[in-house]
Design brief:
Layout lengths: L1 H14 L15 H15 L14 E6 L9 E6 L4 E6 L6 H8 L3 E3 L1 E5 L5 E5 L7 E3 H23 L4 E7 L1 H18 L8 E7 L7 H11 L4 E6 L26 H6 L3 H40 L19 E5 L3 H6 L14 H10 L2
Parallel strand pairs: 3-8, 8-9, 9-10, 10-11
Antiparallel strand pairs: 1-2, 2-3, 4-7, 5-6
Length: 366
């Protein structure tokens, strides 16, 4: 009964919005639009009001905030004051241990499959139609929990007449925003979400979400100007997770596939030298990938299960070839920036990562 009342109240608030037929969201990076998203994101991520005390209020109002779920994940729903655009704002990493475990659970899984969240609950997902595509398992787990809560609220605003939706996330929230966007696009392609919902995504300080084939698929669906990752060039977070490329990560047709066969055809001396060089170059990457999967997959899954008791670890995709994904907007620091945010002998590793330095550089963007 309480859930029904809550859903009714949420729908009523959304119906108060002034629904309009004109398309407000447009393709392309919009500096002022992103700035508004950052104003929202600072409030989603900053549980302490002091964090966003000096960040202006957005031209939006919050109509819903979820309870923490999964590995301390949380999201907000905001509606523009003009009543025609909704924003799904995804929280980034918190100070809680399980939130950091979420980041370190960095083995890959196929971009299509199923996660067993509990003994009675599964998250069936498809983020790409390419069978070679793979994504970060920790952030996929978060996507599973969050999407369950987002979907009914998204349906409510759609029925109220709002068909323009921005997906926004900073830091870990940016990583999850990639996967939520891909998940929603594939739901639309299957008729499970209305095709006339226009999504626009702003990942901000987003890490690398998956491998090259996920990136290709994501970029092919958003390359008309409907998704961006905005990064501060001094920020280390978008450089993560660490990437390991092995020969198995190349396209099927490549010059390395039959390298062993070609080496065997060489004269003895050349064959011996080439074999030695090939093994010295190729074996370390395979070993590194196995170690990555062991420690940031199987071992970290045990830490995940301390928070999510019934979660069952999946089979991993044997790759860790993480790549930059999507269209990038680079905020490039200058001398004035480093005077304000010094990069020397810095003990605060997040000095270049928080909302304020991003907004500072955004104001300088031409």
């Amino acid at each position: 009964m309480i859930k029904r009342i809550h859903s009714f109240v949420f729908l009523f608030i959304c119906l108060l919005s002034q629904a309009v037929t004109a398309q407000k969201l447009k393709p392309g990076f919009d500096k002022e639009e992103y700035k508004q998203m950052m104003y929202i994101s600072a409030r989603t991520g900053g549980s302490n009001p002091e964090y966003y005390a000096h960040i202006p209020a957005p031209d939006y109002r919050m109509v819903y905030r979820s309870a923490p779920m999964g590995l301390d994940n949380l999201w907000d729903f905001w509606i523009s004051n003009s009543g025609d655009v909704a924003v799904i704002s995804l929280r980034g990493t918190t100070q809680k241990a399980e939130s950091w475990v979420n980041n370190f659970y960095a083995a890959m899984v196929p971009a299509k499959g199923s996660l067993e969240l509990s003994g009675t609950e599964r998250f069936d997902y498809e983020l790409s139609t390419d069978p070679r595509a793979a994504v970060h398992v920790g952030w996929l787990l978060s996507t599973g929990y969050l999407s369950k809560d987002i979907m009914p609220k998204l349906d409510s605003v759609y029925r109220s007449g709002i068909k323009q939706v921005v997906i926004m996330g900073h830091s870990q929230g940016g990583a999850i925003a990639y996967l939520v966007t891909a998940y929603f696009y594939n739901l639309q392609s299957k008729g499970l979400l209305p095709a006339d919902i226009r999504f626009k995504t702003y990942c901000s300080a987003g890490p690398k979400p998956g491998n090259l084939y996920f990136a290709y698929d994501y970029e092919s669906k958003t390359q008309a100007g409907w998704a961006y990752n905005v990064v501060n060039a001094a920020d280390w977070v978008p450089e993560t997770p660490m990437s390991i490329q092995t020969l198995n990560d190349f396209n099927v047709v490549n010059p390395f596939k039959d390298a062993k066969k070609m080496i065997r055809k060489q004269p003895f001396l050349q064959r011996t030298v080439l074999n030695y060089m090939f093994n010295k170059l190729e074996r370390p990457t395979r070993k590194a990938q196995r170690n990555y999967e062991r420690f940031l997959g199987r071992k970290t899954a045990g830490l995940v299960q301390k928070s999510l008791k019934e979660f069952k670890a999946p089979q991993y995709y044997h790759s860790n070839d993480y790549v930059r994904t999507g269209a990038y907007i680079v905020l490039y620091p200058d001398a004035d920036y480093f005077t304000k945010y010094p990069n020397v002998n810095q003990t605060n590793v997040f000095i270049n990562h928080l909302h304020e330095p991003y907004l500072y550089l955004l104001d300088k963007l031409k």
